[in-house]
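does this look right to u?? pyridoxal-5'-phosphate version
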Amino acid sequence: MNTRIHLSLAHMGGNEKKYIQEAFDTNWVVPLGPNVDNFEKDLAQFLGNKKHIVALSSGTAAIHLGLLQLGVGYGDEVICQSFTFAASANPITYFGAKPVFVDSEAETWNMSPEYLEIAINERIKAMGKKPKAIIPVHLYGMPAKMNEILAIAQKYEIPVLEDAAEALGSEYKGRKCGTFGEFACLSFNGNKMITTSGGGALVCSTKEQAQKTMFYATQARDNAPHYQHSEIGYNYRMSNICAGIGRGQMEFLPLRIGQRRKNSYYYRKDLANIEGITFHTEPSADFFSNYWLTCIIIDPKKTNGVTREDIRLALEKANIESRPLWKPLHLQPVFSSCPYYGEKISENLFDNGLCLPSGSSLTENDLDRVIAVIKSLL
Ligand SMILES: *Cc1c(COP(=O)(O)O)cnc(C)c1O
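got this back:
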């Protein structure tokens, strides 16, 4: 049996252990510490645009603390891209607030600016108040149409929290994803561009926001010699051990981006001209995707009836992991009562889309195995 090819695996550079060892040697085996400070510095330098980074226990925690500082509360609404992982919207509900879902546009597969504006107007009519925030997502690393989205956000004066969990290193008009919103979340889960074994970060626009984030992430302790609390806090800070892994990972980030992009081009070279296969690709030179995952759409009308699921099962039989695209959140049972604005763009992507193995450690031999299985069906 061939060895298993996974969708997206953690990929160590080598220096991770050195930074962890430093933490042990200096007994900084706690949340906070020099690895955390340096990891945050590395991220701030990488993203540019004078952002302030706070490393947290997960990307989900980052969204939670971002929404908290945007004033989301009980009975509020927050607009969220429907075509995404549930973690983009789950934190909205932690406040007793409600997600309002918006469809994608066909080019980037991300939030449709057109339906965003429709949703804002409809919600103002229905609720007598504006949604509290907008969460666009750069899905699979593809930048959303940020110019259009930001223009609408500014027109209605609604803040943007960017979900850049999958988009570390992606750029829109030469500017890094994660630097457009008032806040942005990053994720360092095991399968993302880089990992800290599990972790995330909140990208803040001001130093005050970063200090406030730190405050909430460490149980909201007031400035007093005893333990005094005037607000509800959380235990969300990243540990100095995890941040050590992150520091080692950051040294290889540009290489990892190059490797994932190379995967996408390698697949396209062999598969893009097959009738019925369409690749998720940058719509113009304004978009630079890290191609976290390479995704394809299968049109069974052009493949003699071969479906996405046929391909997924054939790959599985060859011990190759692939995955359907995200199921739109407005179709998820848990969100069935939430308003939705759009057509069927994201639904069609879900019906016919497949994520191919995309890890930065894949070899050409691995990619050739995937390509051979797909070619054998089409
Ligand atoms: C991974 C991911 C998150 C959540 O990040 P965690 O670190 O796993 O909590 C949020 N949004 C998207 C789109 C993601 O892919």
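The longest helix spans residues 253-271. idk if thats expected tbh
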